[in-house]
Design goal:
By secondary structure, the protein is of the alpha/beta class. The chain has 2 domains: about 170 residues, Rossmann fold (3-Layer(aba) Sandwich); about 70 residues, no CATH class. The protein contains 8 helices and 9 strands. Strands 5-6-7-3-8-9 form a 6-stranded mixed β-sheet, sandwiched between helices. Strands 2-1-4 form a 3-stranded antiparallel β-sheet. β6, α6 and β7 form a beta-alpha-beta unit. It is globular and about 50 Å long. The termini are far apart. About 40% of the residues are buried. One of its GO terms (molecular function) is ATP binding.
Length: about 260
């Protein structure tokens, strides 16, 4: 077996605030393999986003160890090992969609011709090839999030970190983007780390679901999905899907009752 893309062992993180310390993560141990789609679910404040930020090198754990592609998160960030998609698309309104997708490539110093090719390829991956010259305000919310995903894909990182990217969208748009994201994952083989509050979304998308307890965030269950790689939306009506969703719900309930 190949080494995990992300390996956390006994990870702990305590924030110092003006009101005292906040214990955000406690004894988190987890291995994520190459090409897995891993969703993190739990109540607000349970450390889902904090764990993602640790992987990205944006927060520094106060205990335990964390490796990304066999190196420290800081080294992985410098090696451009990941792309990050936030809940808000975060597109600059004065830049075209192509200009927004190209921005990290400009910062990284890619040549103009290389930037153009990478932007075209990334937009094609998210079915926005005909919208390169549009501005963000000319796109729907779902299309803006697809542009944000294209920006994270443009420099071809191995890992995609996604922090509730569809949380603000209506259910119909969210369903469509879930389908598109699964198709994108199948085409690219990226390792996906995905934060969500939605049980159906976590079950539909994931090969592995990490259920987290309320603060301090601990892993209360890790569920390996039995669902096939090909997942039409109506798989959500299947007995297998309902059984996984029930286990996730029970894990969340057990975490709350342990308080």
């Amino acid at each position: 077996m190949s080494a995990p893309v992300v390996r956390a062992e006994g990870l702990d993180l305590t924030f110092a605030t003006g009101d005292g310390s906040v214990h955000a993560l406690s004894d988190v141990s987890l291995d994520i393999g190459r090409g897995e789609f891993v969703s993190f679910i739990g109540p607000s404040g349970c450390g889902k986003t904090t764990f993602l930020r640790c992987v990205a090198g944006l927060e520094t754990p106060t205990g335990g160890t964390l490796e990304v592609n066999g190196m420290s998160p800081d080294a992985a960030r410098q090696a451009r090992a990941y792309g990050y998609v936030f809940q808000a698309a975060g597109l600059y309104p004065w830049r075209t969609i192509a200009g927004n997708v190209a921005l990290p490539l400009e910062i990284m110093g890619f040549a103009k011709a290389d930037r153009r090719q990478r932007v075209e390829e990334a937009l094609a991956l998210v079915d926005l090839g005909g919208f390169a010259g549009k501005f963000p305000w000319q796109l729907s919310g779902g299309m803006q999030q697809r542009a944000s995903i294209a920006r994270a894909l443009a420099f071809d990182a191995d890992i995609l970190l996604m922090d509730e990217p569809f949380g603000a969208l209506d259910e119909i748009v969210r369903d469509r983007l879930n389908e598109e994201l699964l198709a994108l994952w199948a085409r690219t083989g990226k390792t996906m780390l995905f934060v969500t509050h939605s049980i159906p979304e976590a079950v539909y998308l994931s090969t592995k679901i990490v259920v987290m307890s309320p603060r301090p965030g601990r892993i209360s269950d890790v569920i390996e999905s039995p669902l096939p790689a090909e997942r039409p939306l109506d798989i959500r009506d299947s007995a297998e899907f309902i059984a996984v969703a029930h286990r996730v719900r029970e894990g969340l309930r057990a975490g709350m009752e342990a308080l």
